[in-house]
Amino acid sequence: MERLNVALVGLGNIGKTHLMYLRDMPYVHLAAVCDIDRKKAEYFAKETGAAAYFDVNEMFNEIKPDAVIIGVPHYDHPSIAIEAFARGIHVLCEKPISVHVNDAKRMLQAYEEAKRTYPNLEFGLMFQERLYPHYRKIKDILQGGELGKLVRVTWINTTMFRSQAYYNSGGWRATWAGEGGGILVNQCPHTLDMYQWLFGLPEKISAHAHIGKYHDIEVEDEVTAYFEHPEGMIGHLVVSTAESPGTNRLEIVGDNGKLVYEDDKLVMCRNRQPMLTFLKETDLSFGRVENWYTEIPIPSTKTGHHVVAEAFFRRIMQGSGELIAYGYEGLNSVTIANGIMLSSFNKTIVNVPIDADAYETKLNELIASSKFVKTVQTEVKIDMENSFGR
């Protein structure tokens, strides 16, 4: 296989981001672009020399690409991926894998079934923030055990500011029927993926999600969550699309010290002895563990959507290397997102694994009962580069 025939489905903001790097990859032939908006599909087909399609199944049947990149609204991820798997087409899907856990499970089941016929079939997810050097360094430190037993994680990530104009820029945005949620399904999947990538899934979730607190939307735009993990670690997560300037502060406390990422700096406070031992053995009523601070160098590494795609294409063409994020890994972040909303809806503590049927039922009820009238604003300035800052 000299060149990989690739199709791109979805030509909105994120689709254009994919187009930018696909044109620079000599081993990729962009065979087709697809969008239900005929003008978009025809425009980008003319720009790239790809064939224009307005129906995914028609494109799959006629072009039969080797791989497809899915960059459409979240609800459509499962149906497109499942159709691709059935034809032996490799899938690289934008985040989140799906809106709810049951749809993610349907996708993964279809993938596993297709692999019986196509054993080399690949399913990757576009979680490019796993490439960010500060997060990779944090993962290395945690895996090395330098912090000892983890006690607490507090993550405030309010750098995902969105204006009302942003929410008005698409009829599907920030609606139960069109998007299936707000910050948790659109801006926050990277943070949720990073949380589970670094710390694993919690076993209990309690949360409050504010619905349209700052924006004229019918979904959540601010969330505060509390997690309980096996072996006693607790986690806090605060996310919002209404704070500017926002904060991205990740604080990880362990028996041997504390690790803090903020303002592009990674700082470790190391204890001279384990704090949990000290608190039991010291005879000082107000004593503190002696410690010292050091700034941890953050190495420079390649990041971006194109790096995720390169790993995906390499594995298809050469059968070597690892994907940045495998399809099955997407289930965890959706589990956390759905668990947060279930806890908020029901004002209860939610156990993990969550009741996926209950969440799907609740979501369908919200869609059916919605009386929200969406304002759509056609003239909106979109700067996608500002979307990827963390």
Using the alpha-carbon principal axes, give the shape: globular
> How much of the sequence is in beta strands?
15-25%
How many structural units, i.e. domains?
2
CATH topology of the largest domain: Dihydrodipicolinate Reductase, domain 2
Strands of the largest sheet, in order across it? Answer: 14-13-12-11-7-10-9-8-15
- Give the class-level CATH name of the largest domain: Alpha Beta
How many strand units?
15
Roughly what percent helix? 25-40%
Largest sheet: 9 strands, mixed
Determine Rg (CA atoms, Å). Answer: 22 Å
CATH architecture of the largest domain: 2-Layer Sandwich
- Low-pLDDT runs of 5+ residues are none
Specify the structural class.
alpha/beta
Distance between the termini: 37 Å
**What is the N-to-C order of secondary-structure elements (H for helix, E for strand)?**
EHEHEHEHEHEHEHHEEEEEEHEHHEH
Q: CATH H level of the largest domain: which superfamily? A: Dihydrodipicolinate Reductase, domain 2
Count of helix runs? 12
Pfam families: GFO_IDH_MocA, GFO_IDH_MocA_C3
GO molecular function, one term: nucleotide binding
Domain GFO/IDH/MocA-like oxidoreductase: 135-259
Domain Gfo/Idh/MocA-like oxidoreductase N-terminal: 4-117
